[in-house]
Structure formats: C-alpha cells, structure tokens
Request: fold
Amino acid sequence: MLKMYVELIKTRFFNEKGQGMVEYGLILALVAVGAMVAFGNLGDGIVAKLTQVTGQLTGP
Reply:
C-alpha cells in the first residue's frame, strides 16, 4: 500500500508533460518583450527623423 502512495506522489510531482509548453511560452514571452523594446526604440527614431524633416521643410 505504501509503495502505491509513493508511486502516486512521484507521478504527481515529477510529471514533465507540460514542460515543453512552458518552455515555448517563456521563449515566446521573451521574443515579445524584445520586439516591444525594439519597436519602441525604432518608433522614437522615426518620430525624431520626421520632426527633423518637417523642420527643414518649413524652413526658418
């Protein structure tokens, strides 16, 4: 009977079926955060360049 409980506990706590999904989720989250940072910096650069072009077109 004790052996059955030990096996039950092992299967409950050492189940690795969802490990792959968790790893894919973490990688996806990391890529999403990287994309947000990259697009945020790219957006700031585009705004600065458009402001510079607008300033040159309107002239002094």
In short: Residues 16-58 form one domain. Residues 19-58 form the longest helix (40 residues).
